[in-house]
Write a structure and sequence with these properties.
Helix content: under 10%
Number of strands: 28
Distance between the termini: 113 Å
Strand content: over 45%
Structural class: mainly beta
Shape: rod-shaped
Largest sheet: 28 strands, antiparallel
CATH architecture of one domain: Sandwich
Order of helices and strands: EEEEEEEEEEEEEEEEEEEEEEEEEEEE
Length: about 400
């Protein structure tokens, strides 16, 4: 039977304890062979004076656990101030846990826990307890009660009381999968993501976070069926107004503060109060502009005016709406209707300017007018049509 360093204890006397176990089941400090099972085997009777046999297992202090692959590359290394190796020989309870999880022999994650349970299956590592793992590349911090490290796939999985903190975003979810190879984090189940810097809050069932690109994909990846997402943008301190958005999926660039909503996208702006609907909306949050190159609808609840067109643009700062292509405007209060090729609507003054193939119709008094250009107020039924051959039709009761 081969003898290997199963546990390594480090004391001031520089002595270490060696326990003989079958080499096929060994997890050794510095062992170059891949692990192939749970921690197991019967411990040898040789125990150094500093170690004590405890009820239910073996008590050890200042231990180091390592696992390498068949090429000798380190997969993970854990150190603990104290440990109890249970009767089942399948897990160990540790105190003062610190260590690293490695990819291709280089540390990818840092591990820390006051108390935890550790076990191994093959080369995979399982951790239970209030464990904190830090992504050494992105400086993201993962906290959960269950972690699983799959070194051959470079995957870190987490469940139970999951929290992800990063300088740009904080995420809570039911479960997580992080890839040290692609530097991508996928969160699933009741996902809540908050960006304090951008004053954004996302609610969805699936989210992908790319720390290097500072990109968030919510409600499904491109090419996948959308699962739905809601977003809230809060006002500055002391400003209770909130912009609300929803859609099938969302992509947010936190660096440029650009949000793209797709699949039945809807945005409710607080200032100016507008509802904007389209199959795709691009919201420049910092610049306060909203663009759609798809058929779009803009509705003013306060003025009861609806605009539709092939494309649309909203400038929140100027409180201006520009519509292009097959434009239609309807004033619900007086059934005034206007169609044109292009339209600009100044919301504070309620003035519209229409250009190209203008058609205007109102009910009281009932008439229609056609021309090349129109300026006026739909709400008050005051529209001046000019340009080209202006044609007016007036309808009388008789």
């Amino acid at each position: 039977m081969a003898r290997v360093d199963f546990w390594r204890t480090e004391r001031s006397s520089n002595k270490s304890c060696q326990i003989a176990v079958p080499s096929a089941l060994a997890i050794a400090c510095g062992l170059s062979l891949a692990g192939c099972g749970w921690w197991g085997g019967q411990p040898a009777s040789e125990v150094s004076p500093g170690e004590q046999a405890v009820e239910g297992g073996l008590g050890l202090k200042d231990i180091t656990l390592k696992q390498s692959d068949q090429r000798g590359q380190l997969l993970w290394q854990l150190k603990a101030k104290a440990a109890t190796y249970g009767e089942s020989r399948k897990q160990v309870s540790v105190n003062g846990l610190e260590g690293t999880l490695s990819q291709q022999g280089k540390p990818a994650y840092k591990v820390k826990a006051a108390q935890a349970e550790v076990r191994q299956q093959g080369e995979d590592l399982f951790l239970k307890g209030k464990v904190i793992i830090t992504d050494l590349r992105s400086q993201g911090v993962f906290t959960a009660k269950e972690f699983e490290w799959r070194p051959q796939k470079s995957l870190l999985l987490a469940r139970k009381d999951l929290n992800i903190k990063h300088p740009q975003v904080e995420i809570t979810a039911k479960e997580m999968q992080a890839s040290s190879q692609t530097n991508q984090v996928t969160a699933k189940g009741q996902v809540v993501a908050v960006s304090q810097r951008n004053r954004l809050r996302l609610l969805t069932e699936q989210l992908v976070w790319q720390p290097q690109q500072q990109q968030v994909f919510a409600g499904g990846l491109p090419g996948q069926p959308p699962t739905g997402v809601q977003m809230f943008r809060f006002g500055q301190k002391g400003d209770p107004r909130t912009d609300r958005a929803q859609g099938g999926s969302l992509q947010a660039d936190l660096k440029t503060q650009t949000v793209t909503l797709a699949s039945n996208a809807k945005l409710l702006l607080a200032d100016p109060p507008l509802e904007v609907d389209s199959q795709q909306l691009v919201w420049q949050v910092k610049a306060k502009t909203l663009t759609s190159d798809r058929p779009v609808r803009v509705y003013s609840p306060s003025q009861k005016v609806t605009l539709t067109a092939n494309q649309g643009f909203v400038n929140q700062t100027l409180q201006q709406v520009n519509m292009i292509g097959n434009v239609k405007a309807l004033g619900q209060r007086n059934a005034a209707f206007l169609s044109t090729d292009q339209l600009t609507w100044m919301i504070p003054s309620q003035q519209i300017e229409a250009l190209g193939r203008v058609f205007y119709q109102q009910q009281q008094p009932r008439f229609t007018v056609r021309g090349g250009r129109a300026v006026g107020l739909i709400k008050e039924q005051k529209v001046v049509v000019t340009g080209g051959d202006v044609v007016t039709e007036i309808f009388t009761k008789n």
